[in-house]
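Q: What would this chain look like folded?
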Amino acid sequence: MVKQRDISIDIVKFLAVFLIINSADIMYAKFSSLATGGAIGDALFLFCSGYTLFWTGTKRFDNWYKRRISRIYPSVVACLGIAIIFGYEYIDKLTYIKIGGGEFVIAIMTYYILLYVVQRYCMKHFKWVVAMAVVITLVAYWFFPYKYETSIKGIYGITTLFRWIPYFGMMLMGAWIGLKVKNGVMNVKTRWTDGLLLLVCIGVFYGVQLLSRRYAVIAPWQIVTLPFLAGVVYYIWKLCNAQCLRRIYENKFCNKAIMLIGGLCLESYLIQRYLFTNALNWIFPLNLPIITAYILLMAYVCRCVARVFSQTFRTEEYEWGKVFSLT
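A: My prediction, written as C-alpha cells:
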C-alpha cells in the first residue's frame, strides 16, 4: 500500500524557505533587527531532511550515501555553475567549501554519516545517543569562545561554527519523530496549547538573544535557547498537521504554491547568497518581495538544471516533463 504523503513536511519546508531568506540583513538597511528567522529556518530544514531518513532499512553504506549525494549535489553543481555564468562567482575565487556546497551542505553530508551509524547500530540505545549529543554540545560551548558572542545573530550567526554541533540534534529529532510517525507510535493531534507553547518557545529563544546583545553578562547563557529552538521546530511541525492547514493545502492553487516553493528549499538556500542585494533598499519594504521572487525564480532554474544534470547520468533519455515540473 502506498503511504499517504506527509503534508506537514511540505508546509514546514515552505515556511523554512521564507524564514531563511528573511535572515539577510543586507535587505533591511536601518531595520536590520527585522532580518531574523534564519536559525529557525535552518533548524526546520534539517528537521525535514532527517524526517524520512529512517523510513527505509539500512543498506550498505556506500549505496545509501550515494543516494544522498545524488539528491543534493546535482543542485550544488547547478547553483554554482549558474552563479559563475551570471558573474556572481569567479572560478579563481572558488574554495573547497564553496565547491562542497558551503558549510550548510557539508554539515548535512556529515550528519548523514552520523545518522547512518545511529540507525545501523544505536537504535536500541537512542536515549544514550541523545545524551551524548547533549554532552558534546555543552562541552563545546564551555571550552570555546562562542558563548561570548553578542552580535545580532548571537551563537547562530555565521561568525561561529558552534551552531553546527547542536544543529545535528535538529536533524536527529526529525529522524526520530519521522520514524515514530511512520510506525504509528506517535499520534499527531494538534491542540490550541501547541500554539501557546510555540509562542513561549519563540519568546524565550529571541528574548535571551536580545538580552545578550544589550548586556554582555547574559551572553554566556545563550545555550539555554537550544531546547527552546527545538521546541519551536517541534510545535511548528505539530501545527502544520492542523486540519485548517490541511484544507489550505488541499486547495489546488495553494497546493501548487506550497509544493513548488517547499520543493525549492535546498536550491533557494544555495543560490540566495549570490542574489541578496541592498540596491533596492530605497523602495523598502517593496524590495523584500521582489528579491524573494527573484531568488525563487533562480532557485527553480537551478533545480531544472540540476535535474538535467542528474538525468544525464541516470537515464537513457531526458524526461523533459520531469525537468520542468513545478513539483
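The CA atoms of residues 204 and 228 lie 7 Å apart.
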